[in-house]
Amino acid sequence: MAHITVDGTLLEVKDGALLIEELLAHGINIPHFCYHPALGKDGNCRMCMVEIEGQKRPQIACDTPIKHGMIVRTKGESIDRVKRSILELELINHPIDCPICDQAGECSLQNYYMDVGLYESRLSTPKTRGKKHVDLGCNVVLDQERCVLCTRCVRFTQKITKTNELGVLKRADHSVITTFPDTKLSNPYAMNIVDLCPVGALTSKDFRFHKRVWFLQPQEAICNHCARGCSLYVDHHREKYQEEKIYRYRPRLNDKINGYFMCDAGRLSYTKENQQTCFSPLIRGKVSEYEYAQSKLLRLLKRHLQKTLIVLGGNLSVEEMVRFKLLAKQYNLFLSGYAADIHDETFGDTFLKCSDRSANSRAFAPLEIDTTEAFFNDALHEAALVILVERDDVPTMIKKLNEKSCVILSAYDVGVYPEVELVLPIASHMAKAGTYINIDGYLQYSKAAIALHPERQNLLTILAFLLDDALLSPEEVWDAHLVSAYEAFATICFKSLTQTPKIAL
User: Which of 166, 271, 319, 443 is most buried, taking the most CB atoms under 10 A from its CB?
Assistant: First the structure.
């Protein structure tokens, strides 16, 4: 460790680390465009200039290693003048269209201009304009005239995806970011460059001009599109007299899981969440009241005691799985986590995407839930009633039932099956709280990101009704049924889930 003085304050920092890293880590606002923790230093924007005692001229913090005893000034008349001049250069060709720019409210250039000082332009020459609305592919749109040439997007395709679709064309103030001739963005992580862009040059087609960011309410959650379980922000808003709507997913930093990024498929999966309110309870294909449908589920269970098979999907939370185990024990039911087509080898890669398309199938083993085909087939042979819970393979499973009575519990519309006894809508992934185990064994707790639809119930609520038991929160389920009953969870308290603990798989 080393000690340095920054603006008169003594700080303990990592010896040899980049100065900008430690300044940001200690909450010191240091303007920057080109630097990003995942992409490293580049030094092209010069916005991170600081004064260092003993140096003849200001230095860029992104390429200055820390030495013990350094005296650094990030503000003052001299260094503020330097930053203001650099910012003025950035604004020479930049359009002043903040009121119509989609990045307004989360634009670094806008924020730095407000911080450094308001001033009129000293130039009267026309601005050099780049092209607008350039379709780069992969749902990404480029407005070249807004670009500050930080090259974050270029370096992302060079260092992270290694697909090299982007580059800098021309020179001086005619320089523009673009794809190479006859090339489009063609990698499954392309939309991350929208997050990396510090200004409004890169935007996503699905979000562009849909909602001002200051109206959005961000909520921490996790993605359930595959077994990686990327940490993310859910940006949502509810208009007056309308249903709550999710407008976008954004990656949330988690060094253990996904770092700074997430795949495009997971990012765009919010559209499925917005469709989860589109169907009602069905009894033999006919619409029913929710309370009556829920009561019918209980009657079916009691009618088929010891002859019921519950087949759980891999996207259920740990708490829901545990409560289903208790239900199976109370009613002497068969409980299976079998899935024949859980893996999609065309989806997985060596970065973030997993071929296992379930968010929580790793929980079956430590919770001692059988996932073998042999047990499933034996239980299916004995069962008169089959309950499918959050299954993605409903059509396939129905074909296997051989005219047995069937109940489907699902957050998403599975279609109309006249032969199905009951279809009961339940809370979707983003409308419920729970814990999930990712492919590497990391546990993450996800809060409910959006409000529960008034015409459906959380699975924990339905299970409390079926068990004739008190409604337990995820924390209460954890304390009552997990820590004491399962060895894998014995040393993990609920509050430690904020630290993303790991269990042995």
Answer: 319
Distance CA 129, CA 109 (A): 18
Residues spanned by the domain of 43: 2-90
**Quick one: tokens of 161?**
């995806």
* Domain shared by 47 and 195, yes or no: no
**Which pLDDT does position 278 carry in this prediction?**
67
Do residue 53 and residue 200 come from a single domain? no
Instruction: Report the mean per-residue pLDDT for the chain.
Output: 92
**What does DSSP assign to residue 180?**
P
Residues 55 and 175 occupy one common structural domain: no
Query: What is the tens place of the pLDDT at every residue in 263-283?
Result: 999 999 999 988 766 688 999
- Whether 265 maps to a domain, the answer reads no
| Residue 17 domain-assigned (yes or no) | yes
pLDDT in tens, 106-156: 999 999 988 887 677 787 778 877 889 999 999 999 999 999 999 999 999
Please, which residues have CB within 8 angstroms of residue 467's CB and are 6 or more apart in sequence?
Answer: 323, 326, 327, 330
3-state SS, residue 202? strand
Q: What angle do CA 370, 386, 354 make, to 5 degrees?
A: 50
Across 69-90, average pLDDT: 91
Three-state helix/strand/coil letters over 307-372? CEEEEECCCCCHHHHHHHHHHHHHHCCEEECCCCCCECCCCCCCCCCCCECCCCHHHCCCCCCCCC
Q: Please, which residues have CB within 8 angstroms of residue 152's CB and are 6 or more apart in sequence?
A: 33, 34, 36, 39, 193, 196, 197, 198
The tens digit of pLDDT for each residue in 48-63 reads: 999 999 998 999 999 9
